[in-house]
Amino acid sequence: MGSNRRKTITGSYVGSVKEIEEMLEFCKEKDLSSTIEVVKMDYVNKAIERVEKNDVRYKFVVNVSRSKLDQ
């Protein structure tokens, strides 16, 4: 197989506070956890470059707090 490996970038909206609490309680009951790498909006382009280079060990989570998303 060549070096043209497919990459997928996905996103999702966060559920309500109640849904998040239910999900966290479920994870606690089942002793589930995940390993993520939190990045800020100004790092997104670099994160995409890392995905392209296959230099990613964990799922990226973009922290959009205090971001100016409407500009």
Question: Could you explain the architecture of this structure?
Answer:
Belongs to the zinc-containing alcohol dehydrogenase family. Keywords: Metal-binding, Oxidoreductase, Zinc. It comes from Quercus suber (Cork oak). GO terms for molecular function: metal ion binding; oxidoreductase activity, acting on the CH-OH group of donors, NAD or NADP as acceptor. The chain is α+β, with helices and mostly antiparallel strands and 71 residues long. The chain is 32% helix and 14% strand. The protein is built from two helices and two strands, in the order H-E-H-E. It has helices spanning 17-30, 44-52; strands at 36-40, 59-63. Strands 1-2 form a two-stranded parallel sheet. Strand 1 (36-40), helix 2 and strand 2 form a beta-alpha-beta unit. The termini are far apart. The mean pLDDT is 80.
Task: Quickly list its features.
Cinnamyl alcohol dehydrogenase 1, two-stranded parallel sheet, oxidoreductase activity, acting on the CH-OH group of donors, NAD or NADP as acceptor, globular, 2 helices, single chain, 71 residues, alpha+beta
